[in-house]
Amino acid sequence: MDGHLNPLIQMKAVTKTYQTGGAAVQALSEINLQVQKNEYVAIMGPSGSGKSTLMNIIGCLDTPSTGHYFLGEKDVQSLSDNQLSEIRNQEIGFVFQSFNLLPRVSALKNVELPLTYLGIAQPERLRRAAEALDSVGLSDRKQHRPNALSGGQRQRIAIARALVTQPALILADEPTGNLDSKTGEEIMALIQKLHEQGNTVIIVTHEQYIAEQAARVIRLLDGQIESDVSTKARGNRPNH
Amino acid sequence: MRLFENITLAFQNIKANPLRSFLILSGVAVGIGAVLHVVVLGELTQKRINERLEQLGSDVLRIRPGYSWRHGVRTEARAVSLKWAEAKALAQQSQAIARTVPVYSGSGDISFLDKNWSTQVTGTTPDYESVNNESLVEGRFFNPTELSQRARVCVLGATVYQKLFKNESPIGKTVMIKSKPFRVIGLLAAKGESWSNPDDQVFIPLTTAQERLFGVDHLSSILAQMQSAEDYDESLFDIETLLRQSHRLPPKAENDFRVHRQDFFLAAIQETNKELAQFIIVIALVSLVVGGIGIANVMLISVTERTREIGIRRAIGAKKHHILIQFLTESMILGLLGGILGVGGGVVFNHFYIGEETLLPLVWVSYSFIICAGIGVLAGIYPAIRAANRDVIDALRYE
Ligand SMILES: Nc1ncnc2c1ncn2[C@@H]1O[C@H](COP(=O)(O)OP(=O)(O)O)[C@@H](O)[C@H]1O
Ligand SMILES: [Mg+2]
Question: What is the mean pLDDT of residues B153-170?
């Protein structure tokens, strides 16, 4: 029904096979998927069902074994390693379950890092990184190192880092998985806010309440899409 | 990614593992320190040899006794065959030889008041002063009258003066040489130490040395000054003819004396020095290579330890060459720090080992830094390529 619009994400018969030892593990099989701009999508499914694999492919950290993945206009298979780096840098903000921050540098430096690779000069970098930290409520922790901060605060740094290049797409793979439920709720409120500000958000989660925030829930089972349900009632999809 | 950030990063990582970094640096440091030491030592020796050449002049030959030969067999004893009369005869009979200076040297104690010093006592003639280009700080060399009178007068070398006197004029003072009183009449300027110390000597008339102190009638050596350096072949012929005749050597017997041309002697030393320097440089190169391998090893460990970091950087947009340059910068800085340590160590070592004259060849210092940085970069290439080519997902999952 959104066929006349160019989808932000389009997957055609994407499969992913891992070769471990002698055995081949089919992590994803025949995935067909479209995600429009400004959508808020939750991906659910049991452990090992292929959620992370799907997110990694969407985030251009990994590439499909077969099939086609288009991000905007671009056919990801045809891109060079450098172009993939640029996409990860400028068009995607990735939030991981395990935070993935550099432990030995300050919160500010962590947030600054994507801008460094974007080639932005230091004063501008500092300004934008500080701004991103402000927006996640960490203005008073800029000079702290991640290991001096709580899990919730670390995930906020990671979110600030994901935001700082103003990407088209925010991906979060179980962002609350390492957090207690109260902190998890705070992080989810933050992600909800990002969506309300107009970001496209895809989130992997086990929590039903989180899924209910999203306008669309995709369930994976054994590397296949088991169901793809839009809950329009919540009204989070763009009006049309 | 700017250079400055890579450098800051490199220092952070070096600081995070200070001991490991230091141990690795020291390999490169020792190598470059050795190179620097050889260079300084080489330049210094060359300088001294040049100075000595100027002092000696290339027109002076030194005749020393060789071994005695009996019935074609070399006896172990040193010949005691050189005589003053032969020195005089050489100067008179050879057209090529302008002057000769007889020398007899023996060891002996010299004392002044409560100070005592063991030195070389050299008996010679007044011509020694000009043939050997001696210059006097104070007083004079002894004269022909004192020579013929077997006078108890002496001229001090600079080292002897330092050992016995304290900033006072030695002229007119009485010193004891081998327990006999001598009047000091002159003080020689320092010539500087090279392979031996010519300043650690006291000069007295040859007659006094032979008859009053040592009771001998032979010489330790004869200095023969040629009319010019080109007269070498003729001089040599005349010396051989005269001495063989005088020593009654049969036609087939070997010479029982040797003739050294002083500048040849120095050239030989120079050659030895060069060989020594080459040898040390080879050792230094080996230790530089070992140091380089050390850096490569540390970088490999570092790349493995920081796999996760590499994954994170790649995930948020670092390109392969960003990672490559980051690790290359780090290994270059490791090499450079080794260079700084080595140059610093070399300077300190040279200062204590060679002494006050230590010159720091700036050209070589800058070469050192370039070499060390180069070694760092070379050593870092393989680890850096490995880092850059890590699979992003694998790196992110690395525990
Ligand atoms: N790098 C990998 N190498 C081998 N097998 C993998 C790799 N990544 C994922 N898998 C396998 O693929 C399947 C899907 O994994 P994943 O996408 O992580 O699942 P989920 O995130 O839903 O728990 C699992 O069977 C997992 O073991
Ligand atoms: Mg997962």
Answer: 93
Which residues, in sequence order, are bridge partners of residue B101? B223
What CATH number should be reported for the domain holding residue A117?
A: 3.40.50.300
The reply to whether A15 falls in a domain is no
Q: Which of residues 200-229 of A touch B (CB under 8 A)?
A: none
Q: Answer whether A117 sits within 8 Å of B5, measured CB to CB.
A: no
What is the number of the ligand 1 atom nearest to the C-alpha of A26? 12
pLDDT of residue B68: 63
Cut 0.80: pTM above it? no
Higher pLDDT, A12 or B283: A12
Give the number of A-B residue pairs with CB atoms closer than 8 Å: 58
pLDDT tens column, B6-28: 888 888 888 888 888 888 888 88
Please give the angle made by the CA atoms of B172, B173 and B177, to the nearest 5 degrees.
120
Give mean pLDDT, residues B126-145: 92
**pLDDT at residue B278 tops 50:** yes
List pocket residues of ligand 1, CB cut-off 6 Å: A 18, 20, 25, 27, 45, 47-53; B 393
State the Cα–Cα distance between residues A238 and B234, nearest whole angstrom.
114
Please say whether the beta carbons of A110 and A102 come within 8 A.
Answer: yes
- Per mean pLDDT, which range of A154-168, B55-69, B228-242, B349-363 is the poorest? B349-363
The total number of residues written for chain B in this structure = 399
Higher pLDDT, B156 or B42: B156
User: B142 CB contacts (<8 Å, ≥6 apart)?
Assistant: B126, B151, B153, B155, B185, B186, B203, B204, B205
Ligand 1 centroid – CA A84 distance (Å)? 21
Low-confidence residues of chain A: pLDDT under 50: 1-3, 233-240
Q: How many residues appear in chain A?
A: 240
Q: Residues near B234 by Cβ (< 8 Å), separated by ≥ 6? A: B94, B95, B96
In a domain? residue A9 = no
Residues of B with CB below 8 A from A105's CB? 12
Confidence at residue B131, expressed as pLDDT on a 0 to 100 scale:
87
Residue with tokens 């699979």: B391
Query: Is the minimum CB–CB distance between B397 and chain A shorter than 8 Å?
Result: no
> Higher model confidence: residue B284 or residue A5?
B284
Within a domain: residue A11?
no
User: Using CA positions, which residue lies closest to atom 24 of ligand 1?
Assistant: A48
Residues of A in contact with B396 (CB under 8 A): 61, 96, 100
Closest in A104, A105, A113 to B316, CB measured: A113
Look at chain A and report how many structural domains it folds into: 1
B283 to each of A134, B28, B76, B271, how far by Cα in Å?
Answer: 59, 12, 39, 19
Domain span at residue A173 reads 36-64+74-230
Find out whether A62 and A28 touch, Cβ atoms under 8 Å. no
| H or E, element range at B77 | strand B73-78
| CA-CA-CA-CA dihedral for A151, A156, A157, A163, to nearest 10 | 150
Q: Residue B50 in 3-state DSSP?
A: helix
- Residue A207 within any structural domain of the chain: yes
Q: ipTM of this model?
A: 0.93
